[in-house]
Amino acid sequence: MKVITLLENTARKETLCRAHGLSLYLETPEHKILCDMGPNAGFLENAQALGVDIAAVDIAFLSHGHYDHAGGMELFCKRNDHAKIYLHADAFGPFYAVDGQKKVRYIGIDPAFRKYSDRFVFCRGHQVIDDELQVFSDIATHDYPTSANGSLREKVGEELRPQDFRDEQDLLITAEGKAVLVAGCAHRGIVNILRRAEELLGRAPDAVFSGFHLTNPGLGADEPEALIRAVGEELRRRPTHYYTGHCTGQGPYAILKEMLGDQITYMAGGTEFTL
Description:
With 275 residues, the chain is of the alpha/beta class.
């Protein structure tokens, strides 16, 4: 399998676009997959610079309904006229963020994107797509909750309530004897998501590509070191390699790198990985 980080908060080269968001391109024996589409056209510009043909993608996956992963959806649909987009049935929820000054901003998917509904496959729970791909959102445990989720809201009537992240789903890829988990931002906790992936696989995945949501960009604050290290201990006891970035945060990543060493890699934009 091949994985290319099309867009991330950082970039391997100055000539590549960077933005707060995430977009990954994956190739398996049977598929060319786009996972998330970043906040804007940056993923398309980088794809062209990196030699990735977005028009050839045959299946797309949206991890959750936030703009930094879904903002490029319309651009993808215009560039690629056939690939189905697998997203959670609640991905178009009215999601908001509250910053340190109590200012509220909309961070959900542009409602205008619903015009591409003929391209959407709405998912709930656990759904097998084919021999290589399955998606799941049925996370049973809630350990290691992060305060970084505390500024995220969902509008219910006229009230802004804490977001429960039921719109978040994860992709499990099995091919050529390898198992890869793609988990977007892991708002519900990378450890909890890993546990469910292990139930479905019967073992730990060989690789994980995900932000770990250990920083809050709106507030400019990282999670407490004790929590980061507790998560790191859980990750370290598995034989998995972790590729992370985006909402993990540079400070938390440095702690995890010190703990996990070669078991963890930063997935800067423009980086290609062969598994």
